[in-house]
Design goal:
The protein has 316 residues and is mainly α. Helix content is 69%, strand content 1%. It has a domain at 91-310: MetI-like (MetI-like fold), CATH 1.10.3720. The protein has helices at residues 11-17, 22-62, 79-85, 88-119, 126-134, 141-152, 157-164, 179-203, 208-216, 221-232, 234-249, 253-258, 272-281, 286-310, and strands at 65-66, 74-75. Strands 1-2 form a two-stranded antiparallel sheet. A hairpin with a 7-residue loop joins strand 1 and strand 2. Helix 6 crosses helix 8 (179-203) and helix 11 packs antiparallel against helix 14. The radius of gyration is 30 Å and the shape is globular.
């Protein structure tokens, strides 16, 4: 029997020392997948950066300029901000906006949560009710505003029905004491369905076992909702309140339609964004409008941060 040579290595050992050929292909595939992913998001990212961040920095620069578009911009320092805080119309716009936010956000949050609790139960026709409650949210706000103007004008359906029960009607649209409340009611009606869906999706993740255990321990329905359901859906609650605050602070289309592109009766429908729009495009004070937009941004940022502090993440 002859001696084995050094080159005679068992076949399993050779297989173990040979690098797997599939590893290089997987690495290459991952690189290609990453490159394709970045290419797919490149266009929307460029659009987002140009029309958001670039526009934001341009707006910040313009807030320190005196510019009427057709002339050369001229730096005026803080003059636009001083003019803004001395303008009584801006103060009225901020008061209108704060009052609007204080009424709309709590009511729409409570109603949306209540509706979500109702349609989350095993009741007959719950799919129909979900659709009915959500339908106003997908309708054009301008179209709904025109319908509300038709309903609440001096000779509209609302005053007609009030006359049937011998209640004197009012000029809802042209009266400065009522027109903003009409817009508030419209906004609550049109946005509640969207937030109901958000709450409903969150409620369906609440374990039934926890609620059953609470019922066995003697907790009432209100106690179970307040002490168990609300803490478990805290992220959805923060989302609803935060987006509600941002949306109501930026209300524009309804105020624009009700005021017919102007300032409204006795500036009653002049919100912060409508002030910015009219200051820029009616009065051509672009620097003041830019300053007002940054003041509004600061208000929204501070208020949203405050809500985040009040509704911290779970376990904080």
């Amino acid at each position: 029997m002859g001696a084995r040579g050094v080159s005679e290595i068992p076949e399993p050992a050779i297989a173990l020392r040979t690098p797997p050929p599939r590893r290089t292909f997987q690495l290459s595939f991952r690189k290609q997948d990453a490159i394709l992913g970045y290419l797919f998001i490149a266009v929307p990212m460029i659009i987002f950066l140009v029309f958001n961040f670039a526009g934001m920095f341009f707006d910040l620069w313009m807030s320190f300029q005196h510019w009427a578009v057709i002339d050369t911009p001229r730096s005026v320092g803080w003059a636009n901000y001083r003019y803004l805080f001395n303008d009584p119309v801006w103060k009225t716009a901020i008061e209108n906006t704060l009052g609007y936010v204080a009424i709309v956000v709590p009511i729409q949050t409570v109603i949306a949560f209540s509706l979500a609790l109702i349609v989350n139960q095993n009741i007959r026709g719950k799919t129909f009710f979900r659709t009915v409650f959500y339908f106003p949210s997908v309708t054009s706000s301008v179209a709904i505003s025109l319908i509300f103007i038709f309903l609440f004008n001096k000779l509209g359906l609302v005053n007609f029905l009030l006359a049937k029960i011998r209640v004197p009607g009012v000029d809802w649209i042209n009266d400065s004491g009522y027109v903003l409340h009409v817009i508030e009611g419209q906004n609550i009606w049109t946005t509640t369905g969207t937030y109901m869906i958000v709450f409903l999706a969150s409620l369906q993740d609440v374990p039934r076992e926890v609620l059953e255990a609470a019922a066995i321990d003697g907790a009432t329905g209100v106690q179970a909702v307040w002490r168990i359901v609300v803490p478990l859906i805290r992220p959805a609650l923060f989302f609803v309140i935060a987006t509600g605050l941002i949306g109501t602070f930026q209300v524009f289309d309804q105020a624009f339609v009700y005021s017919q592109g102007g300032w409204g009766p006795n500036y009653a429908t002049t919100t912060a964004v409508l002030y910015i729009y009219n200051t820029a495009f009616l009065n051509t004070f672009y620097g003041v409008a830019a300053a007002a937009s940054f003041v509004l941004f600061a208000i929204i940022f501070v208020v949203t941060l405050g809500v985040r502090r009040l509704l911290p993440e779970e376990g904080r």
